[in-house]
Amino acid sequence: MDVSSKAGSYISTTQRSAQCDSHGAYDSTAILLGTKVMHWSACPHCVRQANMASRARAAQQAVEERQRRLETRLNQAGIPLRFRTKDFASFVADTDDKEKALSVAMEFAHNFSRHRHIGTTMVFSGMPGTGKSHLATAIARHVMGSHTILYTSAMDAVRMIRDTWRRDAPQSETQILQMLAEIDLLILDEVGMQYGSEAEQISLFDIIDKRYRDVMPTMLITNQNRHGLRQFLGDRSFDRLRENSVWQSFNWTSQRGQIMHLSI
């Protein structure tokens, strides 16, 4: 079929049968300039797969770039060095309670897109050395392939806000809160280990409230029980956390203590 003509030449198309090693027979279309073949189309299935792979690579590169910009701007992002090798496979689930904690963590990680959509709050509560940070790190490592994460202590998050109060601060409090709100998964470790001053409560409430309003998932790691966390955070922040939340207790003895005991 002619689609244009100029100076005695014209552009048209023609078809022929072709064979793809992966997908079998298909109709290949050629663009003709006069009688000269300019291009034969490739297997449509291969083209579709290549386009999907290209879009996936572009999406992953975009997320990685967002993570790099985040770490550059905050300079406190990322998983603590001690926990960077932790994953789900290395978590020793040798009791029913530990198996349940592992299952809850894996469900959150593997279905993070859904939790991201509904803004789930995850709370890991238990004594030091029970594996809370281990599973939080495993979640972070799984999620950060396709989403941005910030793993930081609650005190460091408060300091980010406090640092904006200086006259020479490069960023405003509003800008920091907005950045903390835009992270796909914010993990706050050591919640409840601070002084619990009114200023800290206000700063943490601002962070939690901003993410609550923007329907963004947040993870809190704490040594406190429900009553202790409510007292530390205050009623307003705690009420935000209770809505659409998962509370996972790590109610067993410290694994660090067991390892030390075995080595003595």
Blueprint of the fold:
Elements: E1 4-6, E2 9-20, E3 24-33, E4 36-40, H1 44-74, H2 96-110, H3 112-118, E5 121-126, H4 132-143, E6 149-153, H5 154-162, H6 173-182, E7 185-191, H7 198-213, E8 218-222, H8 226-233, H9 235-242, E9 245-250, H10 255-263
Parallel strand pairs: 5-8, 5-9, 6-7, 7-8
Antiparallel strand pairs: 1-2, 2-3, 3-4
Tell the overall outline. elongated
> What is the top-level CATH class of the largest domain?
Alpha Beta
Class from secondary-structure proportions: alpha/beta
Main sheet specs: 5 strands, parallel
> Per CATH, which architecture of the largest domain?
3-Layer(aba) Sandwich
Average pLDDT level: 84
> How many whole angstroms does the radius of gyration measure?
27 Å
**Care to count the β-strands?**
9
Distance between the termini: 86 Å
The strand line-up of the biggest sheet is 6-7-8-5-9
Query: What is the name of the CATH topology of the largest domain?
Result: Rossmann fold
According to CATH, the homologous superfamily of the largest domain is P-loop containing nucleotide triphosphate hydrolases
Number of DSSP helical runs: 10
Keywords: ATP-binding, Nucleotide-binding
GO molecular function, one term: ATP binding
Organism: Undibacterium hunanense
Domain AAA+ ATPase: 118-244
